[in-house]
Design goal:
The complex is a heterotrimer of chains A (about 550), B (about 550) and C (about 80).
Chain A: H1 4-13, H2 15-18, H3 20-29, H4 34-43, H5 57-70, H6 72-91, H7 94-105, E1 110-113, E2 129-133, E3 136-147, E4 154-160, E5 170-176, E6 185-188, E7 201-211, E8 216-217, H8 223-259, E9 261-262, E10 265-266, H9 271-300, H10 305-331, H11 343-350, H12 360-380, H13 385-392, H14 413-416, H15 418-426, H16 433-455, H17 465-490, H18 503-512, H19 518-530, H20 534-539
Parallel strand pairs in A: 1-4
Antiparallel strand pairs in A: 2-3, 3-7, 4-5, 5-8, 6-7, 9-10
Helix pairs in contact in A: 1-5, 5-6, 5-8, 6-7, 6-8, 8-9, 8-10, 8-11, 9-10, 9-13, 9-17, 9-18, 9-19, 10-11, 10-12, 10-17, 12-16, 12-17, 15-16, 15-17, 16-17, 16-18, 17-18, 18-19
Chain B: H1 5-14, H2 20-27, H3 33-42, H4 60-73, H5 75-95, H6 98-109, E1 114-117, E2 133-137, E3 140-151, E4 158-164, E5 174-180, E6 187-190, E7 203-213, E8 218-219, H7 225-243, H8 245-261, E9 263-264, E10 267-268, H9 273-302, H10 307-333, H11 335-338, H12 345-354, H13 356-359, H14 364-371, H15 375-382, H16 427-438, H17 451-474, H18 485-496, H19 504-520
Parallel strand pairs in B: 1-4
Antiparallel strand pairs in B: 2-3, 3-7, 4-5, 5-8, 6-7, 9-10
Chain C: H1 2-20, H2 40-54, H3 62-65, H4 69-81
Helix pairs in contact in C: 1-4
Classes of the chains: A alpha+beta (about 550), B alpha+beta (about 550), C mainly alpha (about 80).
Chain lengths: ~550, ~550, ~80
């Protein structure tokens, strides 16, 4: 399988497909970035989209991040095959898995077809039907908007197998477009979108689309469960897209701040501008900590992904979008110009990450339905310590899809281990005073969230508005725990300016606890301005 | 506040969104032709000309309300057709002699444009660094250099150019020139700048190659350019963000249209408490922005010596309110925000068009730099021996003396009538702020001020804004929503706890007003009466 | 056994009523939970509550397969009875 380093080298070796001018022009003209997508195919990047016992999900996520760092539209246009094939990886038969793996490695494009024109987030409102015919099924209805709805060779389609619907009323079908009768699959028009303008966001209408029994993934009533499990993994994959966009924007911002002259100085000389940059760095590092721990959790604790994926998909895109908002103001009119390798495109493109594959609100709702139990488990301080260790650093067990479950019985080990992580930090000889000072407020916040979570009841007919703030605070606890664990795991052998005085983790906690620390923000900004590799010292 | 009848008349001429033609023009990155024709027919230029010079400008709040009718419809039309001319004209009314003002008035009254050629890409907001030079010669001046990212510079009948007239650094090194475009030979049009929002605005540049210009083109004497600009900006800094509330008004309307028809989980999205809460918060923020701006606009008439404080404060506070609010609406719209077509297709354009409200014209950070040096004197004088509050400052419906441009001062000299109206509840905060400002040294006040010192301006602006919300409620006649205690409670809650949703009964009270206006097709801003619905449902 | 079922059912009625923001006496145990507007995700939360209340390991989709309180109570009673 192609390595991360080889993918990054390829960007430099093939300037044609990857030139900022070519990509900007495709964006302006709303053309699919064919050259770059073909280049990724030629490199065999799609092999990273096959998820099985011998996969390395964090490595695959890092490859996706590297592509997104170069161009988010391309990453989304190519990465859709991972989204599309995920239901088969989590629930397909051996024959389905082997067959699809071969197709994916061979460059076939697979799209995930959940959305319908009138029902975006509400899976159970889907109207596409699957009616038994002979031994197989006939599919009818429209799927739109779908990423790669026109260019897809295959689609995983969620369809109603029981007219009454409900949790057991849907099935997932792997539809090979080439195997359908003429006219059974009709492409629907491309949606013109705010960002990712070149991506193929379209859809298709199925009419009497007859597929054999081998197309059904799982049982005829398993569709919703299969999709929910697949989404646990794809939502975590989405965080790579956000991190790539953040990397890209930070690179542009650092260049701007270092080079822009104003009032007889550079912007980097203005403390006010440095603080903004430092705050951005803290947000990005907090998002990264969540994404990296979530990504490793796919191997380390698949039984908890119902919580972890909701936290990650809500926290990471939101936090990165927030960081991009700060950068937009810092860059001013420069960030508003349409230009090759420009910030404006990154900002527009990234806004889609918080929307697709379950929006932030959808994920917070999902988290809230589990929150009372999460509160109770946090109070008990019981968790799988080995799972947490593996989610943070070191060797990973093979991915085991059979451990995926809709509701985590053991809650969220990362959050439940927060009090213990604080104890370890307090006992750590390298923990500076500035970090120790944040641990008290952090524990107090954990206690408050725990109590409110226990008292919370997820009523039907829409959750109360205040609950969404509670979900956000739970996400912040996850992020804080992820930061502390990563600091503990690496501090003994890490160095670089962001590690000095635990700067990066202090910056993250200051952000998460809303206790601004100008000195730390300044240090973070100086670190990334003066040391180009500073951020990768933390990523590890 | 009541809108002048002509604001309603213009709104009727322009029709109601959504309109495919506005989106089409944006796609083509061209001005909306029908809109330009309507504004020409209406004679928008007269709005920028004081009554004394033959135009219709008598009250700044009425000017804003007229332009809101345009911004609600198409922000790019508002900026591209009108506001550039107003920025230029404000400098003429501030410093021009009789001949110059007559000439500018003639241009605008006959439907012509004046381009405000201040900006040079290399210097951004740093006017003192402007390089474009007008070198005095025996016959006049020789203009040499470039102006960039200037609206309508390629098609304006006249130009106001900010140019260096003395090579030495300092505040008397620049002058403003009013030029007849037809007499400017040897100037080359620079390529147009493409932007991600406000795409229909023709942003261009001119490269002057030793262009001879007459000595009598100088406004207000050689070396007065910076002073004139800073005085004229006191008007534009307040009026431009105030106009931009029209963008949020329409964005909110699109959101309510969509959410009240969107079926979700067996009801409409508008049934969800979270959705209701967000909408109530956005509506409150829209009114917060308009009330604060309205008081600052009244101060331009009633307390011109201190108005610069409030204009800068509006520019600091209002864009943040608007940008955050439109982002929250985007979250509610989800995938529908991201689509450039369909019933909500205008929303993404509004989001893009709103972006420059923060950094455009004069960036928020530059306004903080304006306020910071004034704080020590305000603390020592204005907040201890209060300046009397002018009659009617908070009576938004009250009469005003005619708009004048000759009474603004470079700094307020410690006079702060608005601070004299700070409520008892906020007095301790003001005292605390005064104590912090008293210890500021001159070295703390420049562009290299620490972020903590910059934050003093944020605290000051917050106190000013809260005062306007309270007093606009107390001084409001006993009808209309501002008279409702729910308004001031909601406004102060949003200020006290920006991340905590409004308590449900309060949110419902605010939402009730919003939905009633939506049903009746009235605008959501202060005047609440400009018709905004489509002709078939318009109340006549 | 019948008594156990009543206990389990009573507890379920209480719990479901809280979710539905209704009085327990307004919840008909023979009506499908979805009829009351209990969506599938909230149904997942219900199985988590049951696990915690009865210290059982349940299929999270239990409430999808046993869509009324009566059916759920019967199934749960069976599972509680089968416990070692």
């Amino acid at each position: 399988m192609i390595s991360l380093a080889a993918v990054e080298r390829a960007f430099e070796d093939d300037p044609g497909a990857w030139s900022p001018e070519v990509l900007a022009e495709a964006d302006e003209r709303e053309e699919f970035p064919v050259g770059a997508v073909e280049a990724l195919d030629a490199l065999g990047v799609a092999a990273h989209y096959v998820l099985g016992p011998d996969c390395d999900f964090p490595r695959s996520a890092a490859v996706l991040r590297a592509v997104a760092r170069r161009d988010l539209t391309v990453a989304i246009a190519h990465g859709k095959t991972f989204l599309g094939s995920a239901p088969v990886w989590v629930a397909g038969s051996a024959a389905q898995v082997d067959g699809l793996a071969e197709r994916v490695r061979g460059g076939a494009s697979v799209c995930l077809a959940l959305s319908e024109p009138e029902h975006g987030a509400d899976l159970l409102a889907g109207e596409v039907t699957a009616t038994p015919v002979g031994r197989g099924w006939s599919l009818d209805g429209e799927k739109w908007p779908i990423n790669n709805g026109t260019r897809g060779d295959l689609a995983t389609v969620l369809a109603r197998t029981d007219p009454a619907g409900g949790g057991r009323g849907f099935g997932v079908f792997l539809v090979d477009r080439a195997g359908l009768a003429d006219g059974a699959w009709r492409c629907l028009p491309k949606a013109r979108t705010h960002g990712i303008r070149g991506a193929d966001i379209s859809g298709f209408a199925l009419r009497d689309a007859v597929v054999g029994p081998e197309a059904l993934v799982g049982g005829a009533g398993d569709g919703v469960a299969v999709v929910l499990k697949a989404l646990q993994i794809t939502r975590i994959a989405c965080t790579s897209l956000s991190l790539g966009a953040a990397d890209h924007a930070l690179r542009l911002a650092v260049r701007f701040v270092a080079g822009r002259r104003l009032y007889g100085r550079t912007l980097a000389d203005l403390p006010h501008a440095r603080r903004t940059l430092g705050r951005v760095v803290a947000r990005v590092l907090a998002a990264e900590a969540v994404a990296l721990v979530a990504t490793r959790s796919v191997h380390a604790s698949p039984d908890e992904l119902g919580v972890v994926s909701a936290v990650a998909k809500a926290f990471v895109p939101t936090t990165v979008q927030d960081a991009l908002g700060l950068l937009a103001e810092l860059l001013g009119s420069r960030g508003f110009l349409v230009e090759p390798d420009g910030f404006a495109k990154v900002e527009r493109d990234h806004r889609v990450v918080g929307i697709f594959d379950g929006s932030t609100v959808v994920n917070r709702t999902l988290l809230l339905t589990q929150l009372p139990r999460l509160g109770r488990l946090l109070a008990r301080r019981r968790y799988d310590a080995d799972g947490v260790r593996a989610a943070v650093a070191g060797d990973l067990p093979p991915f085991d899809r059979d451990r995926l479950t809709l509701v985590s019985a053991t809650g969220c080990a990362v959050v439940q281990s927060l009090p213990d992580a604080v104890d370890r930090v307090r006992a750590h000889p390298l923990a500076p005073e500035g970090l120790l000072a944040l641990t008290g407020p952090l524990l107090a916040e954990a206690d408050a969230v725990r109590d409110e979570a226990i008292a919370f009841t997820p009523t039907v007919g829409g959750l109360p508005a205040a609950a969404y703030r509670l979900a956000e605070r739970y996400e912040n606890l996850f992020a804080a725990a992820a930061c502390l664990h990563r600091w503990l795991a690496h501090v003994d052998h890490a160095d670089g300016p962001l590690w000095t005085d635990a700067r990066w983790v202090r910056g993250c906690l200051a952000h998460l606890l809303d206790r601004p620390d100008d000195a730390v923000s300044d240090a973070l900004a100086r670190a990334v301005l003066d040391h180009p590799g500073a951020l990768s010292d933390v990523t590890r | 506040m009541t809108a002048p009848a002509r604001a309603d008349a213009l709104a009727r001429l322009l029709g109601a969104p959504p309109d495919a033609a506005v989106l089409d023009a944006d796609e083509r990155a061209e001005p909306w032709p029908e809109g330009e024709r309507i504004l020409a027919e209406y004679g928008l230029g007269a709005e920028f000309v004081p009554v004394a010079h033959g135009g219709r400008l008598d009250r700044f709040d009425h000017l804003v309300e007229v332009l809101r009718s345009v911004y609600r419809r198409d922000p790019a039309l508002g900026l591209g057709y009108g506001v550039g001319s107003f920025i230029a004209a404000a400098a003429v009314w501030t410093a021009g002699d009789e001949r110059q003002t007559a000439s500018a008035a003639r241009t605008l009254l006959s439907g012509g444009r004046i381009a405000a050629a201040f900006h040079e890409t290399a210097h951004g907001n740093d006017l003192a660094a402007v390089d474009c030079a007008a070198t005095p010669t025996p016959d006049g001046l020789l203009l040499h250099g470039r102006k960039e990212v200037v609206a309508n510079i390629g098609r304006a009948e006249a130009l106001v150019v900010f140019a260096r007239t003395d090579p030495r650094p300092g505040p008397r090194a620049h002058s403003l020139l009013l030029l007849d475009r037809a007499t400017v030979r040897d100037a080359t049009d620079l390529p147009r700048h493409a932007t991600t929002g406000m795409r229909g605005v023709l942003l261009g540049g001119l490269d002057f190659d030793h262009v001879p210009v007459p000595a009598d083109s100088v406004l207000g004497g050689l070396g007065t350019g910076l002073e004139t600009a800073l005085k004229a900006f006191q008007v534009t800094r307040a009026t431009l963000p105030a106009m931009a509330t029209g963008v949020l008004d329409t964005a909110l309307r699109i959101a309510v249209d969509h959410l009240s028809t969107r079926r979700l989980y067996g009801g409409t999205a508008l049934d969800l408490p979270h959705v209701r809460s967000v909408l109530a918060g956005v509506f409150t923020d829209l009114l917060r922005a308009e009330v604060f701006a309205a008081v600052a606009l009244r101060a331009l008439h009633l307390a011109p010596g201190s108005a610069g404080l409030y204009s800068a404060a509006v520019k600091i506070a209002v864009p943040r309110l608007l940008l955050d609010a439109v982002d929250r609406l985007a979250d509610l719209l989800g995938a529908h925000f991201y689509l450039r077509g369909g019933p909500s297709g205008l929303f993404q354009k509004l989001l893009r068009d709103l972006a420059p409200v923060g950094f455009g014209h004069v960036a928020r950070a530059a306004c903080q730099s304006t306020l910071l040096p004034q704080l020590p004197r305000l603390a020592a004088r204005g907040w201890t021996t209060p300046t009397p509050v002018p009659d009617g400052l908070f009576t938004l419906d009250g009469d005003l003396p005619p708009a004048a441009f000759d009474r603004f001062t470079l700094h307020a000299g410690g006079r702060d009538p608005l601070a004299a109206a700070v409520a008892d509840e906020d007095r301790p905060d003001l005292a605390d702020l005064a104590a912090s400002c008293a210890s500021l040294r001159p070295a703390d006040l420049g562009v290299t001020a620490t972020p903590a010192h910059y934050d003093l301006t944020t605290r000051y602006v917050r106190l000013l804004a809260r005062t306007t919300w309270r007093r606009a409620h107390l001084d409001h006649p006993a009808r209309g929503f501002l008279a409702d205690p729910a308004w001031s409670r909601a406004a102060l809650h949003r200020s006290d706890h920006p991340r905590v949703p409004l308590p449900e009964p309060l949110a419902e009270a605010v939402l009730g007003e919003l939905l009633e206006r939506h049903r009746a097709g009235r605008s959501f801003g202060l005047t609440a009466r400009t018709p905004t619905a489509r002709p078939d449902s318009r109340e006549e | 056994m019948a008594d156990d079922t009543r206990d389990v059912r009573a507890w379920l009625v209480e719990r479901v009523a809280t979710y539905l923001r209704r009085a327990p006496e307004d919840v008909d145990t023979s009506v499908a939970l979805t009829e009351y507007g209990l969506d599938s995700l909230t149904a997942l939360a219900l199985s988590a509550d049951l696990e915690d209340r009865y210290d059982l390991e349940l299929d999270p989709a239990l409430a999808w397969d046993h869509p009324t309180i009566d059916a759920l109570a019967a199934k749960l009673t069976e599972l509680i009875g089968a416990r070692p």
